[in-house]
Design a protein that fits this description.
heterodimer, A: alpha+beta, Thrombin, subunit H, seven-stranded antiparallel β-sheet, 4 helices, B: alpha+beta, seven-stranded mixed β-sheet, two-stranded antiparallel sheet, elongated
């Protein structure tokens, strides 16, 4: 039986996509997993799989670099970024929580967030430091930079 | 001609060879330590571990595990753990602290290196600590003896380790341990607590000639003359290590 939340999520996803339709979501975001052919992480050939995080119409979520005050108060490293709100999965759209936490990857595989846009024209890898899932209508990701690609 | 010093220290031999896709293959000692320790722990503790695992409720994280389920040749910092999916129990082996170089003979140099060895059971509750926690000190006792023996029957059919081609360590010794207890990853003091024990390992490596850089020694001639600038006198001493030709 569909709940109030189930009924509302498609509308919320469509509303969140408006900013993307207006062209003010300048950065795209993807969860990138890596599997290695060798015995250890980093050995052999890496096979990457990238899954974009999007709302209705394939529009990206908001990407916001934390300001100096937030970084200082939160005792966070420079470059820490907050991604979201991301609409939870619903019939026909949204994002599974397990995709954000990379539940399906195997032992030794890697997981990163790749942000591409004006700040990172060639894309940059971030490690996921926190996935907030306690809100009914949104997930949030906090990530910190690892390297440029 | 190869431009190289043709020397080795530990298992690192100049000129460098054998690298394909990762420089990690040059650190054979670390790979041998991880392999030997993992095999020894799993061989010695699996029966006891499985007996406890068999009593666990369905869905427990340790279901279908062995005493070392995962290994990591890096320090388990939050940065590493957030990028790589780990399984528990996790055995980590990595270099730590300040290594020292010194000269032990006129010809020989020595590198003394400290290592960290962490055995991390995971975020255990009080019941699981009672069930699994006592493996930690037992692992320390096992590894101390394995280092002394330099071998375990479960690893490479009991072949002796840490000789040339298998890590090449002059000495390897488990020197101390901290824990077991609740610990957080370095730099993540406010994060999840994991039940773990941490060991210190000390190894030494020494230098040697790389014989690939030197030709075969066939023979040597020695002549000691007694003449001076104004007269010619036959050499006083003549020596020849090669076999004289038989003539006529």
């Amino acid at each position: 039986m569909a709940t109030f939340r189930d009924a509302l999520l498609p509308t919320i996803s469509a509303v969140r996509a408006i900013a993307g339709q207006l062209g003010i979501r300048l950065h795209t975001v993807a969860i990138v997993t890596g599997a290695w052919s060798g015995d250890h992480t980093g050995d052999g050939v890496e096979t990457q799989a990238a899954t974009p995080i999007t709302d209705s119409g394939a529009h990206p979520p908001k990407v916001r670099w934390l300001n100096d005050e937030q970084i200082t108060v939160g005792n966070l490293p420079r470059g820490t970024v907050e991604i979201g709100p991301i609409t939870p999965a619903f019939t026909g759209g949204g994002t599974e929580l397990g995709m954000l936490t990379a539940e399906a990857i195997q032992r030794g595989d890697t997981v990163h967030v790749r942000i591409t846009g004006p700040n990172h024209p060639d894309g940059a890898m971030y490690r996921v430091t926190d996935v907030q899932s306690h809100r009914a209508f949104r997930y949030m990701i906090q990530a910190q930079p690892v390297s440029s690609i | 001609m190869t431009q190289s010093i043709f020397q080795s220290i530990g298992d690192l031999s100049f000129p460098i060879a054998g690298v394909t896709d990762s420089l990690a293959v040059l650190e054979t000692a670390r790979a041998k330590i991880v392999g030997l320790f993992t095999a020894a722990i799993n061989a010695e503790w699996s029966a006891a571990w499985n007996a406890v695992v068999g009593t666990l409720p369905t869905g427990h994280p340790f279901t279908s595990t062995v005493p070392v389920q995962d290994t990591l040749e890096l320090e388990p910092t939050p940065q590493v753990m957030q990028q790589r999916k780990a399984a528990f129990p996790l055995l980590c082996v990595y270099t730590v602290g300040e290594a020292t170089y010194d000269q032990i003979t006129l010809q020989e140099e020595r590198l003394t290196q400290e290592w960290g060895v962490d055995y991390i059971l995971g975020p255990l509750d009080i019941g699981d600590i009672r069930k699994f926690g006592d493996i930690c000190r037992g692992i320390g006792k096992l590894l101390r003896v394995v280092c002394r023996l330099r071998a375990h029957p479960a690893y490479e059919s009991g072949a002796l380790q840490f000789y040339e081609g298998s890590g090449n360590l002059a000495t390897i010794e488990l020197t101390s341990q901290q824990g077991p207890g609740q610990a957080s990853f370095a730099g993540d003091e406010g994060g999840t607590l994991y039940y773990a024990i941490s060991f210190k390992l000390r190894t030494t490596e020494t230098t040697a000639d790389n014989v690939d850089g030197f030709g075969n020694f066939d023979a040597a001639d020695l002549s000691v003359g007694v003449g001076n600038a104004t007269e010619i006198v036959p050499d006083l001493i003549q020596a020849d290590t090669s076999i004289p030709l038989q003539r006529g």
